[in-house]
Write a structure and sequence with these properties.
alpha/beta; two-stranded antiparallel ribbon; 2 domains; nine-stranded parallel sheet; TIM Barrel; about 325 residues; binds flavin mononucleotide
Length: about 325
């Protein structure tokens, strides 16, 4: 029994996924400490922040941290980002000794610096390259490879999600994560759940829906609306990681918020050391505390202290004052 589940919700390749709600990869957020806490709270698998293939191959100093995971986070998928099939393959081969459970190809990053050079969402406009990437990976590895895609490019071009999903399935993708927005929408506007439903109808591999899941009830609503096997949550999880255990933010008590922040602080200090672990925790703590009305001066003190002991003391004072 894993995550309180005895039967897998679905499988990615041969890997059983116990639970149907997953933390989305988010650059600058879903590092090992945050992912592992989300996993403990009920996220059903771990996807790393994107690993740029060029950085992997040039052994950029950021890669060992971005690819690090706790053993109990498994199944762990390394997400790769690039526009060149052979380079993506080489990066995956170099990462293989770290023993991920699978890889994911980023077909969604909308940033001009990424999509503009044909990587991330830029690949949506080059289906033959996508086919090649998945063929190369299928030939080289027995591990499952998933795709995290958007529904199209936008900017006046018709959505291509159905053709793309079928191409991905034909090319050996083990599951699809569908963010129901176009590249043009970036992170704005309503996610198109109808398009996710269309993908679900068009393929037989599992589909994980993503976009606009903000409340616990949205998880069920998305599943009913789209028929998808799993739901992936991004931004809502950095305000309410308890969403993975089906709890709305207003059901979480102040001491539980303090306890989570302290757990993440310990993980961060162990992982990044001092002061980086504390500095990187600040934005999370601010998000978790946003729900409460707290004097701005206290938040400022919490966000600016450079002492770990002071941080703990100020936090405790803040929590006691709620
Ligand atoms: C700060 C931030 C960083 C992100 N980084 C990644 C990334 O590294 N890889 C990826 O596939 N998607 C990334 N995304 C997109 C999310 O995984 C997700 O698809 C998107 O936020 C929509 O889901 P949501 O409406 O639940 O937030 C990022 C999103 C945000 C807000």
């Amino acid at each position: 029994m894993i995550n309180g589940q005895t039967i897998p919700a679905f499988k990615i390749g041969s890997i059983p996924i116990y639970g149907d709600v997953l933390l989305a990869p988010m650059d600058g957020y879903t590092d090992m400490p945050f992912r592992s806490l989300a996993r403990k709270l009920g996220s059903a698998a771990s996807y790393t922040e994107f690993l740029n293939a060029v950085d992997v191959i040039s052994q950029h100093h950021s890669i060992p941290l971005r690819a690090a995971y706790q053993e109990w986070e498994r199944p762990v998928f390394f997400q790769l980002l690039d526009n060149q099939p052979e380079r993506l393959l080489e990066a995956a081969q170099r990462l293989l000794p770290l023993q991920p459970d699978g890889f994911d190809i980023n077909l969604g990053c909308p940033a001009r610096t990424v999509a503009g050079r044909g990587a991330g969402a830029g690949l949506l406009r080059e289906p033959e390259k996508i086919r090649k990437i998945f063929h190369l990976f299928r030939q080289a590895f027995s591990l499952p490879v998933t795709a995290k895609m958007r529904i199209g490019w936008g900017h006046g071009e018709p959505n291509t999600h159905i053709e793309l999903a079928q191409l991905l399935e034909d090319s050996g993708a083990s599951a699809l994560i569908v963010h129901g927005r176009t590249r043009q929408q970036a992170y704005q506007g309503k996610a198109n759940w109808d398009a996710i439903a269309e993908v679900r109808q068009a393929v037989t591999i599992p589909v994980i829906g993503n976009g606009d899941v903000q409340k616990v009830a949205d998880i069920r609503n998305m599943k009913i609306h789209t028929g998808c096997q799993g739901v992936m949550i991004g931004r809502a999880a950095i305000f309410n990681p308890w969403i993975f255990c089906q709890r709305e933010r207003d059901q979480v008590l102040p001491w539980e918020v303090e306890s989570l922040i302290l757990q993440q602080l310990e993980l961060n200090l162990e992982f990044y050391g001092i002061p980086r672990g504390l500095i990187l925790l600040r934005k999370f703590a601010k998000n978790y505390l946003r729900y409460f009305s707290i004097e701005p001066i206290l938040i400022r003190r919490l966000m600016t202290t450079e002492s770990v002991d002071d941080f703990r003391n100020i936090l405790h004072g803040v929590i006691m004052g709620i």
